[in-house]
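Example record for the data management plan.
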Amino acid sequence: MTRMIILGAPGAGKGTQAEMLCEKLGIPQISTGAIFRANVAEGTELGQLAQGYINQGKFVPDEITDALVKDRLHQDDTQKGFLLDGYPRTLAQVGALDEILLEQGHTLDIVIELVTDKGALVERLLKRAEIEGRADDTAEVISHRMDVYAEQTMPLSRVYEQRGVLVRVDGMGTIDEVQSRIQDAVQAL
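Corresponding structural encoding:
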């Protein structure tokens, strides 16, 4: 069983790397960003609520996100493991995830942090916005997201490092090079 989180700044390649790793391990990728974007596209109540936050480069409030993750982690396909991509993002969400896992009698096996260069990330995000037509990836929003990440999410790596489950992986290079580094880290468990 592998229960893991992937951390990294916006544009670090978390989604791409998570998808490849999950396919190899046979576990579901749980991406809160993708779930929110799907709800926005479908015009659901959650999607409309999330849209305002996403367009401003803000995180959707913890109580909404926590409930979404709790529901998802209680689904049958997560029993063999899972990879959380985009959650937790705050110290409060770390506590909520701890409670969810405790209820299930589980703990995290590994937290992978992709270490990247900020300048390269801004370029990646602007290129992605152009290719995918993502309204949430403007230069202003990207800058704000980087600031929010530094303020709220980077402290998570310290928490997981203190718990002994954090592994930092060089996130620069080709997709395959980064994936190889991640797989090496997981196999070292």
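Summary line stored alongside the record: Strands lie at 2-7, 29-31, 81-85, 110-115, 166-170.
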